[in-house]
Amino acid sequence: MKNITFYKFEVYPDKALRIDQIIASQLPEYSRSRIKNWINEEKITINGKSCTPKDKISIKSSVEVKILENEELDIESENIPIEILYADDEFLVINKKSGMVTHTAPGNFTGTLQNALLYKYPELRSIPRAGIIHRLDKNTSGLLIIAKNLKSHYELTKQIQLRKIIKKYDVLVTGIISSNIVINEKIGRHKINRKKMSVCDNGKKSISKIIVKENYFKSSYLEVELITGRTHQIRVHLSYLGHPVIGDKTYGFKKNIFNSDKDFYKYLESYDSHALHAKYLSFKHPASKEKFSIEALLPDSFIKIKSYIKGARHESRN
User: Fold this and answer.
1) What does the pLDDT read at residue 314?
2) Nearest to 198, CA basis, from 185, 208, 209, 211
3) 83-162 and 167-282+291-316: same fold?
4) pLDDT (0 to 100) of residue 74
5) Per CATH, which fold does 83-162 belong to?
6) Distance CA 23, CA 65 (A)
7) Domain boundaries 167-282+291-316, corresponding CATH code
8) Contact partners, residue 75, CB within 8 Å, separation at least 6
C-alpha cells in the first residue's frame, strides 16, 4: 500500500475564490492541471466533503489534500548552497540564511530553499513541499526541519500541530524590555494591508514567551520561545509591545532611534535583514522517538548589530 500524507490548512477568504485557485496559492509547487486532477479524483475535500474545480469558498473553511508517495513536485531544482547542520535517513536540519525564501510562491518560483533542496536531494520530489514542515520568513535566519520521507513528514508535522516541537529564537529589538513576559494576544490578517498580520480580537490564539537576556542602549537582547506558530508571530507581538525587531521596517522599526551613533546608523542604511534568528529546536526523533535537540550559531550580521548596540551603551556613560 502506498504511503499517503495529508496537507491541511484553513482559508479565510475576503471574497469568493475558486478552490483550484486557493490550492494553487497554497501549493504552488504543483501544477494547476495536477490540482484539477486531484479534485476530480476526490483527493481534495472542503470541510470533509468532495468538491469540483469550479467550487468557490467564501467563508472560513478547512481544506485537506491527500498526496500519494509517487506525486512529484513540479518546480525546478537549483544549485544553491545551503548549510546542513544534521542529516540522517529520516530528516535534515538546515541553517537558513537571511534573504532566502523558504517555499516557492507566486512571484518566487526560483531561488528558494525548496529549489535548493531538490538539487541536493532529488528524492524530496515525492515529499510535499520538498519535506519542509515549517517555515521562516525571508529575512529571518536559522533552523528548519526537512523530512526525508512521507512517514517522517507525517510524524514531524503531527508534532508541529500538537505544539510538541520547542522553537527558540534570539532577537534584538528597539527599546528596553525590563522583565520577562508572556505575550498572549491573538493574531490575524491586517484589516487594510493583507500582506501583514496584526493583533486582533478575531485572530488565532498566539503565545510567545519573552526572556530578557541583556539590555543595551535603546535596545534589548531577547530569547523568544514560540508556544504557537503564527505567521510573523514574533515580529507582530514585539511590535505590538512597542519594541519592533531591529531591521523590521514592515512592523515599525525606525533606524533614526540610533542616529547618535553614525557608524551604526550608516550600517543600518544598507541592512536589509531582521535581527531575528531561529536558534534552537527540540523534538522527538520521528523514527527512534528519542529526544533530539540542535542549536545554530548566530549569523555575523546579528553579532555585528549586537556589538554596535553594546558599544553605544558604553559611549553613553562617558
Assistant:
1) 47
2) 185
3) yes
4) 78
5) Pseudouridine synthase (3.30.2350)
6) 9
7) 3.30.2350.10
8) 28, 29, 104, 109, 114, 115, 118
Output the pLDDT for position 219. Answer: 95
Q: Are 173 and 277 in contact (CB under 8 A)?
A: no
What does each C-alpha distance from 234 to 211, 243, 309 come to in angstroms? 13, 11, 21
pLDDT at 136 over 60: yes
CATH of 4-68, one of 3.10.290.10, 1.10.10.10, 3.10.20.600, 3.40.50.2300: 3.10.290.10
What pTM does this model have?
Answer: 0.82
Q: Annotated catalytic, 137?
A: yes
* From 55, 88, 137, 263, active-site residue: 137
Pairing of strands 141-147, 276-284: parallel
Set of cell numbers at residue 30: 504543483
Q: Quick check: 273 and 97 in contact, CB under 8 A?
A: no
Instruction: Look up cell 534584538; give the residue.
Output: 172
The SS3 of residue 22 is helix
pLDDT digits (tens, 9 = 90+) for 176-187: 999 999 999 999
**In the chain, domain spans:** 4-68, 83-162, 167-282+291-316
Query: H-helix or E-strand containing 314?
Result: helix 300-316
The predicted pLDDT at position 3 comes to 64
